[in-house]
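Progress against Task 2.4 (sequence-to-structure conversion) is shown through the following example record, which the project officer requested during the mid-term review.
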Amino acid sequence: MAKKKKQRAPVNPELTKVKSVFQRNVDMAYKVQRTHKSDFVERYDLTDVNCKRRIKAVMNLLPEFKERYGKQYPELEMEEDLANIASLPVMTYDSIERSASLCLGAALWMLDRAWESETILEVSDLLPESYSGVDCVDVYDTRFHHSVFKKMLLVIQTRYGKDKSKYVVPESIFDKRDPEDAFHKIMALLPPERIELAVENLKQKFWEWADLYFDVLSPMVKELNRLDEAMDRLEDQMREYLDRKPKKPDFAALKDLTLMDDRPLIGRLSEEEQMIRQMEGLEEKHKKAEHRIYNLHFVSLSAGVHGKKQIAECVGDNFAEAFCNFHIDDPYEICFAILYLLDQDDDYAWVYSFMTAVVCRAAAMLPWGLELYSEMDDGIWFQDNEWIEPKPFDPEWYETKYAGELYEDDDDPHDVSLAQLVYQYTGAVLPRDMNRFDGLKKELRAKGLKPSQVSTLCAMMNVIGEVSRQRFDFSKYADQDDWDDWDAEEEAVTEDLASENEKLKAELAKLRKQAKEANYNLSRENRELKDQLEKMEAGAGELRQELADLREVVFNQQNGAEEEKAEESKISFPYHTSRRLVAFGGHDSWLREIKFKLPDVRFMSDDISSPEIIKRADVVWIQTNCIGHKSYNIIIDLARKYSRKVRYFAYASATKCAEQVVEEEENTDK
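Structure tokens generated for the chain above:
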């Protein structure tokens, strides 16, 4: 029996096109870089496994790109253009990290959210004991001690393993992730609604950058297509000319070319020579148009770090302004969102292109995004490694010439100073030197700041700079000769104490670890108990509503209250409900009338043959004037089992009961 031939999967022309564009750009860049291929592909995230994931992302997002831009820009080939911009070795997340430390921005965003949601203590329990090995720029935060944000940064940098070369997209990013590691435990403590908002904002910025890019690319492609058409027409003319041209060369014309005089050149050129000159001119324009598009690819993706003049040379002043000043509300949020999308293996993160452009712009907006502070080069606080003494005391901050608080029975308040106002509202004491940054005022004004902004900025830098350098340097006041006079006995005692200290440190570290684990478990149990309590309170509310309904039904039945003649109902029947309602009980005549008024409600009389009917319902209604005790008990038990809301019809009238259902539904929708 002949073996059946294995059927080949149908060829996807779009996928074939995208793969070929990726391969073309990888080959081209490799030739230009002239580096070892393995180093090159790793640096630009173009290894086989990375390319496979990036191609998948392009294919998954391609339909939405076609829907958004296909009709608007018919001159573009979306498969070609998207694959091209997504595969260029321009910028990766880790190259942005190396230049602008986006992981630090994400660390501060996560700590801020934990602070706001009051889970900061639980987060702190999950941080490592030490931040040894963390890669961090020289930075000081006004809210969190450096040991806190550096530990958070270390958690981010090592979330996929200890890869010192790549913190954002390491090789281990495709490995199976441990949901119980510190990073994911901390992520679970952050408000989910803030995480969702961060992701939504990042994706919105992705499409805004794509809008801007295609708006610039479209006229360039139109110009290139126009030049292609002009060159094609000229080639047709040249072929027609050659078909009718004599076979022998025109020696007279060649002689004229060698013996040119001052006559206009165009008057002495043959038709063939004129067409050749025109073709050369078109080819030159074509090369320039291609070069503009080539430059657009690169400057548009890294506009966050390019100068405006450099971008303007490629795309013009208006678009350069749009790229360089691309609006981002919260750069810290963007830094976190891209790490989260990569952790979720989201296509938006893996398509690079406009996503790396937005992330680059956000990272460049961070305080340390473009210029790094260096204490070695600090001419405000240090000179030749020596502390610059403060300037003379400025009494302006302590002059009491501002109105103080006006209290009851006090029509003559004390005047206060600026230093007193600062303390009144913050509890902080101002630095005694508030003029340290006065020398920067001229330089800041030259940068375009207004005088009021200069004064405010200098004062703020002075306070923050002083706080960041809080210290008492004992060695500065110690007499070195005193240290040299220690005898051998004192040194031996010191060694013993050091050994004992190490043992105590080890024991303390062990106890801290146990305490952290206990605190984390207690916090988790507290959250679970809180959730259970909220559910019980919600259930109690429903029970109170049930009892209120039953009291009304019993009252009506015991007092034999006749229903007053109802006014004409203002509700338009039949009424269509949005929730799944099921009703039990009721006389046949009542059922016939109410079914017409509420066609979406499932009326079961006293039929409870299938528990699934109650399980699938949102609300269970009961007509108590016609239902057996046995059936009633079974219905209530099933409703309790599946946590379904129970309501009771308070009337015998079908119209009044229908109005009761409508009122319940409309109150629920509010």
